Amino acid sequence: MSKTFVALSDPVHNLIRNVTRHTLLQLCITPGQLPAMQYRVRPQDLPEAYYSLAVFHAIEGRSLDGTRLPSGLVTPAEKNVVPELVNFFDAVKLDRRCSRDLRLKLKKKGPGMLSCELLSFGTGMLCARNDDPEDLFQRHLWRQHGSLHSTHAVVFARIRALHCAAVPNGLETRKESYDSSNIIYGDCFGELEQLWDRRADTVFLEQVAHSLQGMRRHAEVAAYLHPPLNLQGIIKFHLRAQALWAQPPPTARILLRRLEFIFEHTKIDYSPQTVFRRNSAARAPAARPPRPNRPWHADRSGYDGWLSSGS
Hints:
Blueprint (H helix, E strand, L loop, with lengths): L4 E4 L2 H12 L2 E4 L7 E4 L8 H12 L16 H4 L2 H4 L5 H4 L8 E3 L10 H6 L4 E3 L7 H10 L1 E3 L5 E13 L2 E12 L1 E2 L1 H12 L4 H11 L7 E3 L8 H12 L9 H13 L1 E4 L3 E4 L20 E3 L12
Parallel strand pairs: 1-9, 1-11
Antiparallel strand pairs: 2-3, 4-10, 5-8, 6-12, 7-8, 12-13
Helix pairs in contact: 1-8, 9-11
């Protein structure tokens, strides 16, 4: 197996990576539900930079490029509710550059594991290209937030999908694309690091392996914002394009082998580009087809102005 991964670790994803690495995972048994691993979230233990990202970017929608997000303005009472509003540590919810990406999880919402798909099938992120030039929301994402790009990224398949687009004259069904890539986001990579840090705890690893068995029949597609139609079909193409393993790891020993493989075949990209598409074909009359290969503007964004150095 020669497949390689690229873990994104710009200051935003490095922040999320540190949070998922140091927030304890533990087994949660809820009546009527399957046992699952969840983060033990203590709002007072989370860094202030996390709340800045969650409130001013994920919730209020402020852009990250060139903007200094305020810090220290979240009250203790607000800290108790903010993590749930942004689905805790999920980068797809926390980073609007990734807001329409898709991934498989044991539970779509809640403080559950984020690396289930990677550990179970060996697949990277399914990234939205947001390439419908007449969709008003996708145009907003192009101009306000951009999208993440790495020079080390590999696209195994480009999957065409239908979605219900918001166009100037109302709603209509249109086409868009998703990239089945080798990208790993910071939330997922930090979680892998926590599992590796706790590799001597065989009971914990067996609990993780046991909970991952639910990915066979009970996995949910995490699609939070303007999802495409036929999610199950898109995921099937995604798994067919790059899956390394057919099923979740049955034992702690096999789980450790997969962790070793992923770490040995992962390159960390500390400076991925945030790419903005300023000029879209959406201004053209509806009868004219959108022009291909529109110009893109790349920006090596520096977020360190608002993230504290200790985050």
